[in-house]
Design goal:
mainly alpha, globular
């Protein structure tokens, strides 16, 4: 095994150690905060933020498990959802209209699904069809679907939307780019790889954006709830993240220069 491979494995082990520590600390904080949260002037918004955090760390633990098992493509796919949660958490923090955007998007989705169901269910009873038609027509106004890209405008982390779209195109969805991961050319044949590996850059990009998205969710939730407990622990993890990120960038630059 080359020295570079050794360094890469050590770097990944350091990231995993960080993610495990951050996951444990964050889940404990979220679970305690949800017992009796100080809702303040906007309880619905803070309830939404707690729910976003719960969703983010459901995905966080699942993504971490896949990373530990070496299933890197599945890991990258799940990280997309964590990034999405971070974008929603930012919007919930800074956009007064966030809840209405979320409700309108949910309504638009329900109406769209109702219309699609009408086309494949022609044998409904007259009463069922009447109710479905009434639901689809609604109050006559057309609800707006959520455009996630709008959340990145004016955001402190516009890179979130870029990474979200990159993972959508190269891993999450069935695209030409994502399918090209699986056929692996060997000396004498083409091998179909079910669990393809990530490139060094993709690996660093995915693990670092997962960590940043997790920190974003926790930071905004803590500030919204006015909770200061475990400040030293979260701060130490933040400083460690910066160290790991800088080391990762330097390692990628060295690899690029050597290639």
């Amino acid at each position: 095994m080359s020295d570079r491979s050794d360094l890469k494995q050590i770097a990944e082990a350091d990231w995993i150690e960080w993610l495990v520590a951050f996951n444990d600390l964050s889940r404990g904080f979220i679970e305690k905060a949800a017992i009796d949260p100080p809702y303040g002037d906007d309880p619905r918004r803070q309830s939404a933020m707690l729910a976003i955090a719960a969703r983010a760390f459901t995905l966080f633990r699942s993504a971490l498990t896949l990373l530990q098992q070496g299933e890197l493509l599945g890991f990258r796919i799940l990280v997309r959802g964590i990034v999405e949660c971070a974008m929603h958490m930012e919007a919930a923090c800074f956009r007064p209209e966030y809840l209405q955007i979320l409700l309108d998007d949910d309504k638009a989705s329900r109406v769209s699904r109702g219309k699609a169901f009408q086309k494949i269910a022609p044998n409904l009873t007259e009463e069922s069809n009447r109710r479905l038609q009434q639901f689809v027509m609604g109050d006559g106004t057309k609800p707006q679907s959520l455009n996630l890209g709008d959340f990145s405008k004016g955001s402190d982390f516009p890179r979130y939307h870029h990474i979200y779209r990159e993972i959508s195109a190269d891993a999450e969805h069935v695209t030409w780019t994502s399918l090209c991961r699986h056929p692996q050319e060997l000396a004498d044949r083409v091998h179909l790889e079910i669990d393809p590996q990530l490139t060094d850059f993709e690996m660093f990009d995915t693990v670092s954006i997962m960590a940043l998205a997790g920190m974003t969710c926790v930071k905004h939730l803590r500030e919204s709830l006015g909770i200061t407990q475990n400040e030293a622990e979260f701060s130490a993890l933040g400083h460690r993240y910066i160290e790991l990120y800088r080391c990762g960038i330097e390692e990628l630059r060295r690899a690029e220069e050597e290639s």
